[in-house]
Amino acid sequence: MQVSLRKGLAVATVLVASVPGLSVTSAEAAATTSSTTSASTTSTTASPAMVTSNFACSNGVCAIGPGDVGMPFAAGLIGTGGPPYSGPECNPYLMTVVSGSLAPGLQLGEPVCEWVISGTPTQAGTYTFTVQIAPQPNNLGQPAGPAGTQQFSITIGTGTSDRVVLTGAVWSPFSVNKTLQVRGFDVNNGATYTVYVTATGAELGTITERSPNNSGDGSFLRNFSENTDLNNLTVRDSLGGSASIPVTVNNKYS
User: Fold this and answer.
1) H or E segment to which residue 43 belongs
2) In what order do the strands lie in the sheet with 115-119?
3) First vs last Cα of the chain: how many Å apart?
4) What fold, for 165-249?
5) By three-state DSSP, how is residue 39 classified?
6) pLDDT value for 38
């Protein structure tokens, strides 16, 4: 068997005895294969995207809020997908407003490991903008993969515009405190929420978004201690918004 090895402009021919099962690959071919594999891997890396379950989306545009002039506003933006990240940053994504504009008084930032649109709106209206979400650079400072985008809109009212989203109500009867956990989302970060039993109207207690557990990102959470399954809960806030949710029973011991 004859194998040609290329180095610079010199070409050498080496005779290699034919051995069953022996495969000889030139360095040039190996480098080409490696380069092709690397390029293929990079080109097939999916771009990251936004988690939009807390927003009202239609035709590719997700409405955040609404909010109100003079009412503290907070909406966390959560990313998903893209290449794995193991660098020093606590958030694996970079987010930037690339077109349009936020409502006056609002800004996009990363105060504590989470990208958040926050501030106090100063002008009513509907504002449409696009946020780019890109993976953090790799350890060499190079782009780790393609970026994605998501179009958003925010409407700011002058009174009590509001939208409450309940994301969970879980009762754990076999936990030590028979915990009933209620979770939700609302951009109006200055509102107060009251939890009721839907069937009877009995009040369980109140929730604010300004506790250490809530991180000021629009989410709210509170644990109650309950001895019976309440079946369905209703949450009303100080702006007049309301939503109901069935109670899920977790029968695991904890």
Assistant:
1) helix 27-43
2) 49-51, 73-80, 115-119, 106-109
3) 70
4) Immunoglobulin-like (2.60.40)
5) helix
6) 40
64, two tokens: 């955040």
Beta carbons within 10 angstroms of residue 75's beta carbon: 25
Q: Coil, strand, or helix at residue 158?
A: coil
Check residue 210 and give its pLDDT. 59
User: Rounded CA gap, 237 and 188, in Å?
Assistant: 10
The pairing of strands 165-171 and 148-157 is unpaired
Rounded Cα distance, 81 and 24, in Å:
39
Topology of 49-157 in CATH? Immunoglobulin-like (2.60.40)
Q: What's the residue count for the chain?
A: 254
Indicate where the chain has its CATH 2.60.40.10 domain(s).
49-157, 165-249
Asked if 234 contacts 242 with a C-beta cutoff of 8 angstroms, the reply is yes
Residues with Cβ within 8 Å of residue 88, at least 6 apart in sequence: none
Distance, CA of 207 to CA of 162 (rounded, Å): 16
Could you tell me which residues come within 8 angstroms of residue 19 by beta carbon, excluding any fewer than 6 positions away? Answer: none
Element (H, E) at 233: strand 232-237
How far apart, in Å, are the Cα atoms of 231 and each of 196, 198, 200? 11, 8, 11
From the first residue on, what is the mean pLDDT of each consecutive set of 10 residues in the chain (254 residues)? Answer: 44 43 45 42 75 97 97 95 90 97 96 92 98 92 92 96 96 95 93 95 87 66 94 96 97 87
* Cβ–Cβ < 8 Å for 92, 136: yes
